[in-house]
Structure formats: structure tokens, C-alpha cells
Design a protein that fits this description.
The chain has seven helices and 17 strands. The chain has 373 residues and is an alpha+beta fold. The chain is elongated and about 80 Å long.
Amino acid sequence: MSRLLRQVGGILPAIVLLQLVVASCSNLAPVEPTQTPMALPSDTPLPTATTAPTAIATPTFTPSPMPTLDPDVIRTTVSDGQAGWVSRGVRPLCLQWHDTDGDGEPEWVGVYHQTGEKPQLRAFVLDGDAWHDLFPLEKAKYGLGQYATCELEVRDATGDGRVEILVWGYAETNTTLLHIFVWDGSGYTLVAPFEGPVGVRMEDRDGDLIDEVVLRYRMEGDLVWEPVYTWDGSNYGWTWERYGWFYPGRPHVYRTDTPERAVIAFYLALGDRDLPAAFGLLSGPAQANQSYEAWVAGYATTVAVEAGAVSQIESGEGSATVACHVRAYDNIDGRVVSTLWDVKWTLVGSEAGWRLSSAAGTVLERREVAYYQ
């Protein structure tokens, strides 16, 4: 057989060679398999008895079960709390369940209305058997408030890692009160009391994730004056004042019957992004120096504008000079830059009211606002 293969292997095409091999092998007797396995090199792993590949199990992800609350613990907690305030004759208007002292265990925080000759809003923290009253200043005219209301927040309002308790109250016609308390290691101390004759609100104007406190005072018409208080790490301090609208979300009339009101109206219009109205408050010569399109382009990066400390410093026949502080926020290549200006406006009178003629400004402060995302 081997001689035949040698003879034909070099002269027959490959397909013929393959046919000869198959035909020759078909005449051979079958070889019985032996029980001795074929010898393998020492470094070759032996095959397993399983011929089919083992399937790899696909991992399954089971969501963690929601934490369950023990009904007995809930009943006991609520019952103990009720016993704590019922024994003192207190009927809470609302309650919250928070860890206010950092010990890892929540406490009851609530407000209630004390009736009698001088009705007042009161607040408390119940920590187990320990009762803590949240007191306003001793000589506070309205205490925490006069009326039965429930506006209560428990959160880190100052960004110092501690949890503050914010109690809102109301008095007389429009007076709004805000008292902020914090645990000092032995009791709850008053961080700051605020009173706004026509409102108190909190806002994060500079994007540092710490709210400023804004008080509101009513001026003539629909204007308000707003002092802004900022947390400095240990106290709230006055940092800025500005003019705003009593009803911010409504259309407004920009009054120009005095030089001061004309300047305030100009910056409120810019803040409202009502650029046509702001351009219309400029005098004829000021408008003639540039087109509306060119003027608007100068405010393309403006995010917000605020004006404060507006006062008339000079006046003459048909003209006046008004000084003011202006804080502008601009988006410069994705960074918000705050600029504080000292601006002096020259205004001229007309039958339609006062109009802004020319301005000169000095930069008092410029800084990048650190917005956190």
C-alpha cells in the first residue's frame, strides 16, 4: 500500500490520490479499540469525560429588598411621642421625624399653636423623654409667629455639616418670620431670626449650594427693597441690597416719574430680560449712538442684573445725576462671573418721563462664581 502511494503520489491529481486512499482503506479489517489511552506529551492536559461544553451560568441581579419597618416599633415610637406631647397639653400642627442632633437616632420635631391672651406659634424637639423648646429672642415682638401655620424644614441650610431646623411664621398683615435653630451639643440654640415686613425667602443666587436669606420691604407701587444676608461660616451677615418686584411673575409698568425710579426701572427691565423696554428708557441721543441690535449684543452674555443703593446726587433744570450699585452676572465661556459696579447715570427729563442719557462706571469687585453641579 505504501509503495502504491509512493508511485502514484507524484503523478496523480490530488482528488484521484484521495479516492485511492479511501478505496484501499475500505478493504482493511477494522481495528478493535484498546483500553490503553494514547500517550500525550507531559504538558498536555487530559480531556475530561464530558464531551459537551459546560454552559456558563448567566449572573442574575436581584434588587435589594426595601427596608421593612417593624409595626410594633412604629406603634411604640408613635405612642411614646404622643405621650410626650399630650402630657404637656400640646397638640402639634405638624411633625417631622429627623436626626437633628447627629446621634444617629431621629427625634420628633413639631410646631403647635398656643392659644390664650397672646396666641403664639411654638416649636419643639422631643428626644426620647427629653423635651426641648425652640425659643425666639426674649424680646421678639411676634415670637415665632402669631398664626396657626405649619412651615417647617429640617436640613443643612448653612452647608456646615450640621442639620438646622427652620421654622416659618406669620404676623399681622404680611409680616413673615424665619427662625433657624441648631443643636450646639447640649441644646438647641437660635442661629438667626429674620423678619420681613412683606416676606422672607431663601435662594441660592451665587450657586454655592448655600441659600442666602432675602428680606422684603414694600416700597411705593409694586416695588420692594430686598436686603440679602449670606452665611459666612458662623453667622448670617448683610452682603447686598437690591430692588425687586412685589409680584415677580407678573407684567410690570416701568415707572420713570423720578430720576431714581427711571434707573431702577432700567435695571429691572434688564433683569426681566425685557430688552426692548430697557432700550426704550434710554434718551434719544443715547439711542442714536448705536442701533438696537448693537446695543442688545452687549448683553448677550448677561445672566442676571441687580441694582441697589440708588440715589440722586445732583439735579438741575431738566437733568439729574443718579448713583447706584449694580451687580451683573455674565456667562463667560461657561463660567459665571459676578461684577459689582459703581455707576453714575446722567438723566434728562421729557414729557414721557426721565430717560437715561449717559453713564460712567467703576468696577468695585469681580469674581468667578463657583457653581456646583
